[in-house]
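step=encode ok
step=design start
structure_in=
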């Protein structure tokens, strides 16, 4: 079984990418037959979406490549960064290009939706946004979890959650991808 994980941010130090990769590692540890690919949104950079640019240049190859990763995946772990109460510009732009190619961006692929932030709300606003909007684009949401106060609950050296209650909740969430 092939799974993808990504943090919906272009930061090279994205805490959401760290969380998504860690969640994926929990899934891999629980089932030997699982292969995980952690995607970096920087590998799918695109010009700022506009209909004029789309009409001029057509569909972008990086958007097609990202959609292919989704189509090939048996499941997705996505952790959404919150920028000013919304998706990151990098994710929103990639998503906009993808949705012009395939309106059902997530292609009914099972997904676990995560978010985290340095603050106590853990990206709660972007989590609510994702949970309300992703199903309209054919996301089969199996579970969701917001991790508050990332720097207090995650050891970046070991790449692991230190809060045992949150770790257990995350393990339960990712296992729903294969139930």
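sequence_out=
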């Amino acid at each position: 079984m092939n799974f993808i994980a990504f943090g919906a941010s272009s930061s090279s130090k994205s805490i959401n990418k760290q969380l998504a990769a860690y969640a994926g590692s929990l899934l891999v540890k629980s089932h030997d037959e699982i292969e995980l690919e952690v995607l970096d949104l920087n590998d799918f950079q695109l010009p700022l979406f506009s209909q004029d640019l789309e009409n001029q240049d057509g569909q972008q190859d990086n958007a097609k490549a990202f959609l292919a990763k989704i189509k090939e995946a048996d499941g997705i772990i996505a952790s959404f960064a919150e920028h000013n109460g919304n998706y990151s510009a990098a994710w929103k732009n990639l998503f906009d290009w993808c949705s012009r190619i395939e309106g059902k961006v997530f292609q009914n692929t099972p997904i676990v939706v995560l978010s985290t932030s340095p603050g106590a709300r853990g990206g709660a606003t972007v989590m609510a946004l994702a949970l309300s909007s992703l199903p309209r684009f054919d996301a089969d949401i199996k579970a969701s979890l917001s991790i508050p106060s990332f720097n207090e609950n995650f050891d970046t050296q070991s790449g692991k959650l230190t809060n045992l209650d949150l770790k257990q909740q995350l393990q339960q969430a990712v296992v729903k991808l294969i139930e």
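step=design ok
step=annotate ok -> The longest strand covers residues 140-147.
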